[in-house]
Amino acid sequence: MNKIIVIYIIYIILILILSISNVPYSQLVINIFTPIFILSSYFYKMKMEQKIKQDSDQYIYVTKLQYDMEFKIYSEISEKLFRLKVATFNLAPALDTLPSEEEERRKEYIDIQNFVKSIIFFQKWYLNMHLFMRRK
């Protein structure tokens, strides 16, 4: 059972006993224990809030770390898939789709590579539309 609940139950029992009985100085005892109970409740609350904040900060750090790792992995995968696709197309180049000059080919290659690096941020419907348009 929680410590604060036990203290609270003891406090209530003590007040009930002292209220019912005609013990001398019972009101004085109640007046002494009430601030003690309030202070113990306050410190327990502060301790629990600090623990919750610490757990929350740790969770945020772990979540950010996981996001960074996933982003790094997806970036590496998309780059490698792009290189694989380019290498596959270079096995049998289509002469009608390649620019005639080397500089234009290099610029087109860089543009496509930059597009593919950011491909993980596009919506699926956009990518499907783009692939459909490329097929036509």
Write the layout of secondary structure elements.
Elements: H1 3-20, H2 26-91, H3 102-117, H4 124-135
Helix pairs in contact: 1-2
Short summary of the structure?
By secondary structure, this protein is an all-alpha fold. It has helices at residues 3-20, 26-91, 102-117, 124-135.
Describe what you observe in this structure.
- The chain crosses the membrane at residues 5-22, 28-44.
- Keywords: Membrane, Transmembrane, Transmembrane helix.
- The chain has 136 residues and is mostly helical.
- The chain has a domain at 1-67.
- The chain has 4 helices and no strands.
List keywords for this structure.
136 residues; mainly alpha; 4 helices; transmembrane; transmembrane helix; membrane
What amount of the residues lies in strands?
A: under 5%
Measured on Cα atoms, how large is the radius of gyration?
35 Å
**Would you report the number of β strands?**
0
- Biggest beta sheet summary: none
Return the string of H and E elements.
HHHH
Number of helices: 4
The rounded distance between the terminal residues' Cα atoms is 70 Å
**Uncertain stretches of 5 or more adjacent residues:** none
